[in-house]
UniProtKB/TrEMBL annotation:
<dbReference type="InterPro" id="IPR011032">
    <property type="entry name" value="GroES-like_sf"/>
</dbReference>
<dbReference type="GO" id="GO:0008270">
    <property type="term" value="F:zinc ion binding"/>
</dbReference>
<feature type="domain" description="Alcohol dehydrogenase-like N-terminal">
    <location>
        <begin position="43"/>
        <end position="174"/>
    </location>
</feature>
<protein>
    <recommendedName>
        <fullName>alcohol dehydrogenase</fullName>
        <ecNumber>1.1.1.1</ecNumber>
    </recommendedName>
</protein>
<keyword id="KW-0560">Oxidoreductase</keyword>
<comment type="subunit">
    <text>Homodimer.</text>
</comment>
<dbReference type="Pfam" id="PF08240">
    <property type="entry name" value="ADH_N"/>
</dbReference>
<feature type="domain" description="Alcohol dehydrogenase-like C-terminal">
    <location>
        <begin position="217"/>
        <end position="336"/>
    </location>
</feature>
<keyword id="KW-0479">Metal-binding</keyword>
<dbReference type="InterPro" id="IPR013154">
    <property type="entry name" value="ADH-like_N"/>
</dbReference>
<dbReference type="InterPro" id="IPR036291">
    <property type="entry name" value="NAD(P)-bd_dom_sf"/>
</dbReference>
<keyword id="KW-0862">Zinc</keyword>
<dbReference type="InterPro" id="IPR002328">
    <property type="entry name" value="ADH_Zn_CS"/>
</dbReference>
<dbReference type="GO" id="GO:0004022">
    <property type="term" value="F:alcohol dehydrogenase (NAD+) activity"/>
</dbReference>
<dbReference type="GO" id="GO:0051903">
    <property type="term" value="F:S-(hydroxymethyl)glutathione dehydrogenase [NAD(P)+] activity"/>
</dbReference>
<dbReference type="Pfam" id="PF00107">
    <property type="entry name" value="ADH_zinc_N"/>
</dbReference>
<comment type="similarity">
    <text>Belongs to the zinc-containing alcohol dehydrogenase family. Class-III subfamily.</text>
</comment>
Length: 385
């Protein structure tokens, strides 16, 4: 357990907390470390002290203004972290002061028709919503500047701050003996990738899998496929520098589309006839991914954010060959009920988290951390608060 949880909730419970946060006031503007005020949690809310947070490509795309999520300013981004409960609001019973927790952007209330159904991890009230910028309880912010200016929330979480307030549906309790740095990966990237392989694609032993894009999500999908016993895992990326990292994850073969003038699915008969699963992130190669799967049963799983308004480049008749295509949010993992099992699998070595955190920096160097991700030099840069 990381010795990084020293604070006294008895001095802060029920009171406004003044702390540091990285606030962004517009697309592509630098993050500014500001002193903000964080209100106490209201009914069915939890206030947590963030211990570690990292940067995901979703944070990066929103910061760039690539989608509609960045309409509300000023804002506290961040959604991948680990922390400790400082205090809870009325009605919260599943976590308490001092519990170690993971914030999740795709919440689970446990009561709605979606949560009660075993075939989806969406929630009627707390599913991921990039446009949501206030709390569900009263439609207001829990963050404000020293002058009282509201500061908006992001993806149900807002982790680029020393303290954050979340709906209790978006907080998952973890084993206090867990390595907290690694557990932060389960807030988004690793859970999404592994879940895409295990749940959305249901990879079986002996399957053949290809992963398009060897970032954190892609490598996590490859790790999930390896853990399931896939016999062949092909990594596809235009950056050959990522291949060494892929080998450590268990990827067996690599393809750089730049090395051939032919489309990937036409370059090799094996691709056209034998591939069973394809995971990719960028819309421009979606068709290649789809056509590379085996006719009759091949499955394409989409993960990540797609800011492009373009429609899927697939002819309807191509769906009659038995190939399927689906998207997944959070790897189809139900956050509160299933994420603890994934955390246990990680602790037991079923899923290997080593290597995903490539850099560590103090919180005040958040702009430098964003630069590392922008330049493709980092998988996950962990920020210490």
């Amino acid at each position: 357990m990381d010795n990084h949880t020293s604070f006294n909730p008895r001095e802060t419970a029920g009171k406004i907390i003044t702390c540091n946060a990285a606030v962004v006031r517009g697309p592509k503007q630098p993050f500014v470390l500001e002193r903000i005020q964080v209100d106490p949690p209201k009914k069915m809310e939890v206030r947590i002290k963030i211990l570690y947070t990292s940067i995901c490509h979703t944070d990066l795309s929103c910061w760039k203004g690539e989608n509609e999520a960045q309409r509300a300013f000023p804002r506290i981004l961040g959604h991948e972290a680990v922390g400790v409960v400082e205090s809870v609001g009325e009605g919260v019973t599943d976590v308490k002061e001092g519990d170690h927790v993971i914030p999740i952007f795709n919440g689970e209330c446990g009561d709605c028709i979606y949560c009660q159904k075993g075939t989806t991890n969406l929630c009627g009230k707390f599913r991921v919503n990039p446009l949501k910028s206030v709390m569900a309880n009263d439609g207001k912010c829990r963050f404000s500047s020293k002058d009282g200016e509201p500061i908006y929330h992001f993806l149900n979480t807002s982790t680029f701050t020393e303290y954050s307030v979340l709906d209790s549906a978006c907080v998952v309790k973890i084993d206090p003996k867990s390595p907290l740095k690694k557990m932060s990966l389960l807030s988004c990237g690793v859970s999404t990738g592994v879940g895409a392989a295990w749940k959305a694609a249901d990879v079986q032993a002996g399957s053949s899998v290809a992963v398009f894009g060897l970032g954190t999500l892609g490598l996590a999908a490859a790790e999930g496929a390896r853990a399931r016993g896939a016999s062949k895992i092909i990594g596809v990326d235009i950056n050959p520098d990522k291949f060494d990292k892929g080998r450590t994850i268990g990827i067996t073969d690599f393809v750089n589309p730049k090395d051939s003038s032919k489309p990937v699915h036409e370059g090799n008969e094996w691709w056209r006839r034998r591939l069973q699963l394809r995971m990719r992130r960028k819309l421009g190669i979606l068709r290649e991914a789809f056509l590379s799967t085996h006719d009759g049963w091949g499955k394409t799983v989409l993960v990540g954010i797609y800011p492009s308004p373009k429609l899927l480049p697939i002819h309807p008749m191509e769906l009659f060959d038995g190939r399927t295509i689906t998207g997944t949010i959070f790897g189809d993992v139900k956050g509160k009920t299933q994420l603890p099992d994934l955390a246990r699998d990680c602790l037991q070595g079923v899923v290997n988290l080593d290597g995903f955190i490539t850099h560590e920096l103090p919180f005040h160097k958040i702009n430098e951390a964003f630069g590392l991700l922008t330049d493709g030099k980092a998988l996950r840069c962990l920020l210490h608060l």
